[in-house]
Write a structure and sequence with these properties.
about 270 residues, alpha+beta, Uridine Diphospho-n-acetylenolpyruvylglucosamine Reductase, domain 2, Uridine Diphospho-n-acetylenolpyruvylglucosamine Reductase, domain 3, Enolase-like, domain 1, 5-stranded antiparallel sheet, 4-stranded antiparallel sheet, about 35% helix, globular, oxidoreductase activity, CO_DH_flav_C, EC 1.2.99.2, Mopterin_DH_FAD-bd
Length: about 270
């Protein structure tokens, strides 16, 4: 690991000012991805700016028909929060299935989204639930946030301060996880509100994506049978030592069906 300076930001404005002044500086949330990259000398920031202790940044609250999760909220906090468990149990379950106990105790939602690992769970939750990402300067709809492999709509000095999740009528997340890393080989979030169904898939491609064939099928009939009847095109999906593109394509409707069944049970 290379030498670096460490700063603890008093507020979002101060944190952003440091990155604006030094393009080699990086925000530090839980450090579950960044510190590992630094240990491998794949990243060498000049300054780490700790944003996890900014007052209010880890707050979780209900506002109208939304759950607002602070950018520094840790996965374990989301998983165990009473209002999240009551109003969006799918989100609590997703957070509770991220990594292991250590990762959940340290990792933050803002860090996970900014990193945008193609096999991470939170991107599926944010995109599937139609959430809005709030930064120090603007709001970004989930459909506009994820751009590609480890790429988001964030500017280099932009800080995620919160994520606003609309409360769906029914939702669930199902994933087939890699037993070693616990990342999603494929993960599927299904959410229904009225006649609108959103289906987001992680782990299968270079970035999280909405699966329109499943959305169309489930909008017509919100049943596991309808999900299982969908055939997913494998031509744009990932293939690696863990699974072929065709196997991932097979898993997507299978997991969507499981998510529909779980959503129906509440």
């Amino acid at each position: 690991m290379y030498a670096f300076n460490f700063e603890r930001a008093a507020d979002a404005k101060a944190a952003v000012a440091t990155l604006r002044a030094d393009p080699d500086a990086k925000f530090l949330g839980g450090g579950q991805s960044l510190l590992a990259a630094m240990k491998l000398r794949l990243a060498a920031p000049s300054v780490l700016v700790d944003v996890a202790r900014i007052p209010g940044m880890a707050e979780i609250r209900v506002e109208g028909n939304e759950i607002v999760v602070g950018g520094a909220a840790r996965h374990a906090d989301v998983a165990e929060h009473a209002e999240v468990r009551r109003r969006i149990p799918a989100l609590a379950a997703l957070a509770g299935g991220i990594g292991d106990r250590q990762v959940r105790a340290m990792g933050t939602i803002g860090g996970a989204l900014a990193n945008d690992d193609p096999a991470a769970d939170y991107p599926a939750g944010v995109l599937g639930l139609g959430a809005t990402v709030v930064t120090d300067r603007r709001t970004i709809a989930a459909d506009d946030f994820f751009k590609g492999l480890y790429e988001t709509a964030l500017e280099p000095d932009e800080l995620i301060t919160a994520v606003r999740f609309p409360i769906p009528e029914q939702a669930a997340y199902a994933k087939f996880r890699n037993p070693a890393s616990r990342f999603a080989l494929v993960g599927v979030m299904v959410a229904r509100t009225g006649n609108t169904v959103r289906v987001a898939v992680t782990g299968a491609a270079d970035s999280v994506f909405r699966c329109q064939p499943l959305e169309q099928a489930l909008s017509a009939a919100f049943t596991a049978q309808a999900a299982r009847g969908v055939k997913v095109d494998a031509s744009t999906l990932n293939a690696d030592l863990h699974a072929s593109a065709e196997y991932r394509a097979h898993l997507i409707p299978v997991l969507a069906a499981r998510a529909v069944e779980a959503a129906a049970k509440g």
